[in-house]
Amino acid sequence: MNATFAALPLSVPLRDPAARGRAAWVLAGLVILWPLLSIGEFHPWVLFEARNLKVVAYFLAGFLPPESSPDFLRELAQATLQTLAIATAGIALAFLIAVPLALLATQALSVSRLGPGPGQPRARWLRRAVRGLMMILRGIPELVWALVFVRVFGLGPTAGVLALGLTYGGMLAKVYAEILESGDQRPVRTLLEAGSGRLAALCYGLLPGSAQDLTSYTVYRWECAVRASVVMGFVGAGGLGQLMDQSMKMLNGGEAASILISFLLLVLLADALSSWLRRLLANTGTGNSVAGVSALALTLAGALGLAVVLSFHLLEIRLGDLLSWDAAQQIADFFVGFFPPDLSLAWLHKVAQGALETIAISALGTLLAAAGGLLLALPASGRYGRIAAAATRFVLNALRSVPELVWATLMALAAGLGPFAGVLALAVHTCGVLGRLFAESFQNASAASRNALIESGSPPFAAFCYGTLPEVLPQLVAYTLYRWEMNIRMAAILGFVGAGGLGQLLYVELSLFHYAQASTLIAAMLLLSIAVDSASAKLRSMMNR
Amino acid sequence: MKLSRRSAFKVLLICVFSQLSVQVLASDVLRVSAIPDEAPTELQRKFTPLGKYLEQQTGMRVSFVPVSDYAAVVEALATGKLDLAWLGGFTFVQARIRTVGSAAGAVIPLVQREEDARFTSKFISADPSIMTLADLKAKGKNKVFSFGSPSSTSGHLMPRYYMMQQGIDADKDFKNIAFSGTHDATVAFVASGKADAGVLNASVWEKLKEEKKVDPAVHVIATTPPYFDYNWTVRGDLNPALVKKITEAFLKLDSKNPQQAEILGLQRATRFIPTKKENYDGIEQAARSAGLLK
Fold it and tell me: Which residues of A touch B42 (CB under 8 A)?
């Protein structure tokens, strides 16, 4: 940095005024990073060993031509349809779970908050309890729920649907409650103060303002559910994931290529459908005739209802079986088996090691991704011309379209099984995501301070560091932290394909019916996810101050 | 508008609740599954002629449910969601422990292949510097070792137990251990270098060798002593008359009959023989000493 500055024709002291603080941060970062590197088995040189390169090349060469025998294609089509049905049925279930939770949890509909009264403490505790339940639902990764439900409900997609329903139910409830709280509170307050019931206040005071946001978030979650239901196939919950798991394990490149192609097409389709639906909602939401909106809403609701019913039908899930007394008893029996958790010192030590490994994998992966994303975001934001921008954007899209679990399998070939493969898998996928978000931030940044620096003779690199970067940095850090939150869940999951951490331990203990040990692991995952949630919220609010 | 909206909602409700009433009578269907120790397509291929034969012998419709998780098969058999399952020695012990004293009664082992009375596992590697278990132990610290599924008898329990007796602690003496999930995947892991060494069921190893699906660099470094493995097991409360029919159907299979020879060939059995739970006491003991049963 000093070398760059020495070239400046200025007579002010050539010292970065924030140098001391920055150096301290870098030093602290390195101190934290060091143990992570060793836990994550960070050995980049193994990637370039001739034997590993040969293996990867051989597997990738097998991708061509993609498998296209009629038998396989039929199986593929069926699996694709199943994946779609799991996502749709799962979201429907999540919706049913989320609505009551959100209504209980949101402060917007609280009568007791209108003023001091006898019900206030009780209402506050109820809200806290509901929020706690939501946190548990979404804090445990859907893959873990799926593994557990595969045991209770036996084989097939039922487990996937339930797992999606619970995790996404928790997520939807949280966001619904927040959306309801963030809108204009005056109408609903007025209604409640005038003595209206809560449901009426919701329908006439809150929904008109927030229905569009609620719907569009639900549609977005459906899109995520399509991706998630693929991942759940890896533990035997049916669909494309199950096929993919097999082909990847057997290193059948041709099959893997076909599955990957149909997966990408499915994701693109879900993407397009979801953005079309959201546009449709946005366009009709603004002051059209009431009847027009209702007709559209009715058609959409009808289509959705039909899709949900068809999904349940296709999956041959018998809701009656799930809601029966027998099933309830079975679930209860099963969950009782998880208590008490194994809290012996030896086991806690092992769990702590697994947790550290998971943290290391997610943190290293996210850091590498942020660095790579930053490098790729510069050309992608159009700083080096249109061709460079288009090319890097294509690379970024390719990186993020391939799911982490698939990257993990590829990376395990390149780097051997173990945590380092997980680090690389997260890094590559997240790099695609962050690169795109970073590029958008750069494009949206105002050019004023950078231009001012350039015009006063600063070289472009320094102008970037001191002009553009400070403006966008909080946002970049926020994006990175947000992805880290997601990656910690993912890191726990990557263990299922042999990338170490809590996931691998859990997979083994569940297989051996060691439920006391498994429940300690699930609790550890939950704690980890809650800790990261609150740590990253705190860091973000620090950045925004 | 209001009315039509309400009726639309009603239609939706009716649609949803009509799903509730759809129940299938399971009594005339024999629900069969197998622990997924090989790729599902392979399991399906192996099962199809056997399923037809069982249909013909029992007069029931036979439905085969493929799965990708061993423990799910155990759980399904224990909770009466399956009638008949192909289990490994260890999964049988797990299923038995889970059902002894239950209302439905303990699961009952019916038959095993003649070969299952003297089953072995093969340790393999593609690394020319690893030719014996001693090599593996000496160099283990920077090697990745792959088992099959954690619930597998021949791909995990017995090899782990054998290594223990040879002074190798799988959890401490390797850089990483991996679970490939199935026996054929273990070979793929080792051949690709994803794992440096691994262990699998001798029967699948022989089959892959015969089908020439093994990379020539992959070699056997050790073989475990023999133990009892796989069997066909039914849930404890299955109709005894039906249990008898199924048992006889298996015992009747004769390699001189060309159709039945195909079934036996796919099951990799010369013939089926009766089995009893005591055959698996040794497995239970091994599982307890290896810490896999608590």
Answer: none
Kindly write down the DSSP assignment for every residue of B207-240, as one continuous string.
HHHHTT-S-TT-EEEEEPPPB---EEEE-TTS-H
Complex-level ipTM beyond the 0.85 threshold: no
Q: Report the DSSP beta bridge partners of residue B273.
A: B112
Q: Nearest residue on chain B to A415, judged by CA atoms?
A: B194
The two tokens of residue A465 are 């560091």
CA distance A515 to A492: 18
Strand pairing partners for B147?
Answer: B179
Residue A126, pLDDT above cutoff 70 = yes
Q: Which residues fall within 8 angstroms of residue A115, CB to CB, at 6 or more apart? A: none
- Asked if the structure places residue A5 within a domain, the reply is no
**pLDDT over 80 (residue A14):** no
Residue of A453 and B67 predicted with greater confidence? A453
Overall average pLDDT of the A95-103 stretch: 92
Residue A267: pLDDT band with limits 50, 70, 90: confident
* Residue B201 phi, psi (nearest 5): -60, 130
d(CA B46, CA B58): 19
B125 and B213 fall within a common domain: yes
pTM of the model: 0.79
Q: With CB atoms and an 8 Å threshold, state whether A301 touches B12.
A: yes
Last-in-domain residue among A307, A335, A363: A335
Distance CA B294, CA B105 (A): 21
Q: Can you give the length of chain A in residues?
A: 545
Q: What is the pLDDT of residues A278-304, one digit of tens each?
A: 777 777 654 444 545 567 777 877 888
Which helix (H) or strand (E) segment holds residue A515: the answer is: helix A515-544
Report if residue B2 sits inside a domain: no
> Could you tell me the CATH number of the domain that includes residue A487?
1.10.3720.10
Co-location of A505 and A526 in the same domain = yes
Closest-CA distance, A266 to chain B, in angstroms, reads 23
Q: In terms of residue numbers, what domain contains A296?
A: 71-335
Residue A273 carries which side chain, given as an amino acid letter? L
Which tokens sit at A81?
Answer: 């349809």
Q: What is the pLDDT of residue A308?
A: 86
Residue type, A358: T
Nearest residue of chain B to residue A154 (CA atoms): B76
Is pLDDT at A387 greater than 60 in this prediction? yes
Q: Which residue has the higher pLDDT, B152 or A498?
A: B152
